[in-house]
Every structure is written in structure tokens, then in C-alpha cells.
Amino acid sequence: MPIASIIHSINDGLSKLVSMFTLLMVLIMFTIVVLRYGFNLGWIAMQESVMYLHAMVFLLGAAHTLKVDEHVRVDIFYRRFSAKRKALVNIAGTVLFLLPLNAVIIFLSWDYVATSWSLLESSQEAGGLPLVFILKSLIPLFAISMFLQGVAEIITQAIQYRSNGEQG
């Protein structure tokens, strides 16, 4: 339980950061529209910052979405299952799909991100942000946070499975 609590705390912190990024993204997008249509002004870096924030919102918010069980689920059969059977399905899905997929993402993205960092890769656009290497770093960070949340989910669902007396 303490491991799951630590992971949940980390993802709660990320979700608060995502909330701030979402507000910032909206404000910057509003500013871009006002400047473009009101004053005929625009900057590539400002537009790219919205793209960066958008990536941060989705990639850093995914683990929290899993934590609060708000992810997309095709539940034709799942909704009719008992709590015990749902816990078993969640454990199986996490072990068979979530953890291996995120391990592969971490493994495959590591060199990609390391190369970007070694070059301090920047935008190809004139006037763009010189932070592409940071943007690419979100890929393994996403996979790590999802992997950790998957571990927390296995622990939580195992407790649910053991504590629920219903027959699946």
C-alpha cells in the first residue's frame, strides 16, 4: 500500500501541474488569436509553446486519468461484471498490455531522446523554441508515469479482489 500511495501522490502532483499547463495553454492561445486578428502580429515561438503545453497536458495527465478510472474503456461486458471480476480484468489488462507496452515505449524512446539531448535539438522554424529535446523527453516520462501507475493499479486491484466477497 505505501508504494501505491507514493505513486498516487506523484501522479496527483503531475495532475496539478497539468491543470496549470491547461490554463496557461488557454491564455496563450487567446493571446495568439487576439494578436493575430486584432493587431496582425504573431510569433512562431508563441504558437509552438501551445503545442508544447498541449503535449504536456496529454502525456503528463494520462497516468492521473488512469488513476481516477476516466480512461476510455470498451465495457460491453465489463459493466456487468462483479467488483471482484472487474478487479481481475483490470489486473490482467495491466499485466498483459499496459506494463509491457510502456516498457517498450521507454526502451525505444530512450536513444531517440538521448540523441535529441546530445544535440540540444531546437525547432526547425525560424523564431521557434530551442526546446525540442525537452518536448521529446515527455515520451519516456509519459511511459514511466504510466508504468508506475500500472504498478499502483495492480496493488489497488489486488486489494479490491481480496477484500470483495462477491463471486465473479
Order of secondary-structure elements: HHHH
Q: How far is the first residue's CA from the last residue's CA?
A: 24 Å
Oligomeric composition of the shown chains: single chain
- Tell the overall outline: elongated
Radius of gyration: 20 Å
Describe the 3D structure.
By secondary structure, the protein is mainly α. Helix content is 78%, strand content 0%. The protein has one domain.
Describe the structure in brief.
By secondary structure, this protein is mainly alpha-helical.
Provide the fold topology.
Elements: H1 2-39, H2 44-67, H3 83-119, H4 132-163
Helix pairs in contact: 1-2, 1-4, 2-4, 3-4
Features of this protein?
168 residues; mainly alpha; 78% helix; elongated
